[in-house]
Write a structure and sequence with these properties.
Pathway: Glycan biosynthesis; glycogen biosynthesis. With 451 residues, the chain is of the alpha/beta class. It is built from eleven helices and 29 strands.
Length: 451
């Protein structure tokens, strides 16, 4: 017989059912036979682990002082806020953040912005710094090793399901739908996958699936990526998001820890080694993505390069950005500085404080300068006669008089000298700053100190 799903709802008040593994739009009840799914209970029994220990070296000097998940994004947020907010909005209130590289600013941010959950009712965001907890006394050797070193802490929370998340991507996802499908499919592990052009998939961990989206192959950055059945020009790329049955996770981590030639990484070792041995399900991101109003293209960005980071931030100033930060149904939570509103002063023909097609955060002052197509974080000052064009300016920076910046990323706390021009002469810029492949110029306090 068939057993109906309990009438549960997500953060947005929509009924929760398990999405079909066969195709979009199919009746989820086609997958539920002789099964009783209480999604609210499942979410309470889920422990989310956010892996936030990486440096993100492709961001160069932006991560000299803090890890990639702590890098500012979108004017007032940090990258780590996106997976944590997804957990909150999905109904997962037991979260642990695993840190390692230069974790000071990340820890401060979590303590200040994520301390509002009630531990008395089993809600929390715990910080788990790397502690060399195994007999080998090593720092984290890979994503799987990071989880393995914390098995004692994980077991203490007694989860039934463990949701493992990368802490350095920008996206909105309803994890409750991922959990529901995982349970309904009877899988030991589910891997969230984004659909990408096959020609662009060589830089990802690529997933090969059968007609029911069960994983039959997992290849790390293959030269010849597998295609999606029925779609020869598309490939499933792993998002670094996994759901494990807890007992199964404990066992495979124990086995992997004993493998001397393993890199102890989920994408390189754990998942490939389990293909054909366990039930591993590919979860289509299209089935759990939280779409921006009027858009049906899933939004997921790895902002791990200067070009990708600049593009994702600049997209936010467009009329209809791909990522909707104004969506009150799926808010992004963060620690918010208590600063006054942005201010614009001077309005004469000689100098006019103004901003067009731009986003300016609290505490900004545009004093007789011009801002165009740019995103300014908190406490940025743009002084008289200066121009900021198509540029991302991180917090507490000061743009000197008569300066002109085009297509730049200005690091936190920069003091741009009076009259400095950047973004108009690539050869000259490369002598003083770091210029990306597409011509984005990174300016940091260290660069400015050498001028």
């Amino acid at each position: 017989m068939r057993v109906a799903l309990l009438p549960c709802t997500s953060y947005k008040g929509e009924p929760l059912t398990a999405p079909s593994r066969r195709h979009e739009g199919a009746d989820p009840m086609d997958e539920i036979t002789d099964y009783h799914l209480d999604i609210n209970r499942a979410l309470r029994e889920t422990l989310a682990l956010v892996l936030a220990g990486g440096r993100g070296s492709r961001l160069h000097d932006l991560t000299n002082r803090e890890s990639k998940p702590a890098v500012p994004f979108g004017g007032k947020y940090r990258i780590i806020d996106f997976p944590l907010s997804n957990c909150m909005n999905s109904g997962i209130r037991r979260m642990c953040v695993l840190t390692q590289y230069r974790a000071h600013t990340l820890i401060h941010h979590i303590q200040r912005g994520w301390g509002f959950l009630k531990a008395e009712i089993g809600e929390f965001v715990e910080l788990w710094p790397a502690q060399q907890q195994t007999i080998k006394e090593t720092w984290y050797q890979g994503t799987a090793d990071a989880v393995h070193q914390n098995l004692e802490l994980i077991r203490a929370h007694d989860p039934r399901y463990v949701l493992i998340l990368a802490g350095d991507h920008i996206y909105k996802q309803d994890y409750s739908k991922l959990i529901a499908q995982h349970i309904a499919s009877g899988a030991d592990c589910s891997v969230a996958c984004v659909d990408v052009p096959r020609a662009d998939a060589t830089g990802f961990g690529c997933v090969d699936v059968d007609a029911d989206d069960m994983i039959v192959g997992f290849l790390e950055k293959p030269a010849n990526p597998p295609s999606i059945p029925g779609h020869p020009d598309r490939t499933f790329a792993s998002m670094g998001i996994y759901v494990f049955n807890a007992d199964y996770l404990y066992e495979i981590l124990r086995i992997d820890a004993e493998e001397a030639d393993s890199q102890h990484d989920f994408g390189r070792d754990i998942i490939p080694s389990q293909v054909g041995r366990a039930r591993i399900k590919a979860h289509r991101f299209t089935q759990s993505c939280v779409y921006s109003v009027g858009r049906r293209e899933p939004y997921w960005r790895d902002v791990g390069t200067l070009d990708a980071y600049w593009a994702a931030n600049i997209d936010l100033v467009s009329v209809t950005p791909a990522l909707d930060l104004y969506d009150t149904d799926w808010p992004i939570w963060t620690y918010q500085m208590q600063r006054p509103p942005a201010k614009f002063v001077f309005d004469t023909d000689e100098r006019r404080g103004m901003a067009v097609d731009s986003m300016l955060s609290a505490g900004c002052i545009v004093s007789g300068g011009k801002v165009s197509g740019s995103l300014l974080f908190n406490d940025v000052r743009v002084n008289s006669y200066s121009e900021v064009i198509d540029t991302v300016v991180l917090p507490m920076s000061d743009i000197g008089r008569h300066a002109r910046l085009t297509k730049c990323i200005v690091g936190t706390g920069c003091r741009i000298p009076e009259g400095l021009v950047v973004g108009e002469d690539p050869e000259e810029d490369a002598k003083r700053f770091l210029v990306s492949e597409t011509g984005i110029t990174l300016i940091t306090p260290e660069h400015l100190a050498r001028l």
